[in-house]
Amino acid sequence: MQAIYDRLVQTGYRVMNPCDLAEELTKGPEDPKMQELKDRLNWALDRLRDVKNETCDRNEAMRRWNEVFNTDFFDQFITDKDEESQKRSGRIGVAVAAITPKAPKQWAV
Question: Phi and psi (nearest 5°) for 16?
Answer without folding.
Answer: -100, 155
